[in-house]
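Recap quiz, item 2
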Amino acid sequence: MNRSHVGDDAELYVIGALEPAERAEFEAHLKGCTDCAKRVADASQVATALAMSLPAYEPPHRLGRRLAQADGAQVAPRRRFSLWAVVAATAVAFAGVLGWQDAALYQERARTTVALATIVHSHFRHVTMTSSSVGPAAKVLYARDGAWVYIVVDRPVAGVRAVLWRGATARDAGALQPSGGVSTLFVSDANRPERIVLHEPLGVTASATLTY
Amino acid sequence: MEQTDGELVDGLARDFAAGRQGALAEAYSRFGRLLYTVARNALHDEAAAEDCVHDALLRVWRTPGAYRPERGNLRAFLVTCVRNEAMTMLRSAQRRAVREERFERLEPDTQEGIEVPDHVEARRLRDAMQRLPHQERAALELAYFGNRTQREVASELGVPLGTVKSRLSAAIRRLGAELRVEGTPA
């Protein structure tokens, strides 16, 4: 329904005082009414001030993890792409408009944001990977419940893939991505791996055992 | 070139409006504590508040056109979304059952505890509310801090619905003028 005006509903809407049916009707109207959108925008500032006066609570770490995973998984399940493939595809799509350099920066920003948001909102452990004599120095940060892992290698590497082991089951989690002076791989759905092995084309380069 | 915080927030708002990957996590990292506070104070239940913020953020991020710049800054928009989501959940007949189920899977590492809000902002708001006409303040306190809808406020105060609507609207517009919040950055 597209009413000609909303009366006082804008102010009631921002504090959640409309009944569900009234709210649905108001939101439908709001989509096509710039004046009402402006009135809601003004009233929303007061709602924010009210919110900032409330006793503050620290959100549970799990909430950040859930949202970070949803952020990374929005397109992936539908197209059966990995998170990084989706990010890469997005970057390619933007490349024509923004130029390749900007697209690469966007890709790196998206990847880093997902990983860091997850880490910040988690309790995690870390373990140094045992390297072969020619291998790089590497470390694994991982969620205490094994939900995610973040692998960092101390140099840019190409073609190095991470394999996650759980019992006798191995899973190729993908290739580490070079960025700046390091290479990283964030696995948002790690499924509690017990061992992580880095493979380069000619063999094993580093490994680590994870404890929970 | 280094970006200012304002430019970063503007960029985030554009990315969020477009439903771009990374924008959801970044919005949560910036505004998550305030959003969770809104939900938790309305629902008084940790698990329900978590679901409230999760569902509200995901819905608007995934819905094309849900957020538009004319709706104001992204933080204020999300606060409104979470508040309305919380009020919906509060009125769900099944909330009690859901809450009990969710309590079963609470993780032990959750940090919680009431903290002192921003003293300056809280004082400004408290002072502005004290200057509201008594009837407007009573209606607003019931609606916002008491988590009542306009009809419930009307019933509790024993006044017509239209009167409550007018009082609430006037109170918020008056507070907006008092706080000069129109230009508050995101």
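Strands of chain A lie at 124-128, 130-131, 138-143, 149-153, 161-166, 169-175, 177-179, 182-187, 195-200, 203-209.
Chain A touches chain B through 68 residues (CB under 8 Å).
End of item.
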